[in-house]
Inverse folding.
């Protein structure tokens, strides 16, 4: 069902297919919320001042931790 590349990626990520899908979708949703916060901030600068940048840093840190494991 999965190509060799897909299987290798899942093994490298140390996740099963459903776990990987759930993780990827959760990242996508967090990024979409950050996009929404940036749009709000562009219209009303006092709102959501650091939400998007904080979220991006949080996600980057999470990926670094995963890479170091």
């Amino acid at each position: 069902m999965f190509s060799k590349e897909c299987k290798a990626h899942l093994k490298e990520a140390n996740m099963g297919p459903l776990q990987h899908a759930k993780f990827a979708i959760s990242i996508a949703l967090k990024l979409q919320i950050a996009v929404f916060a940036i749009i709000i901030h562009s219209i009303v600068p006092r709102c959501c001042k650091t939400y998007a940048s904080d979220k991006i840093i949080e996600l980057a840190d999470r990926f670094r931790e995963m890479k170091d494991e």
In short: The longest helix spans residues 17-43.
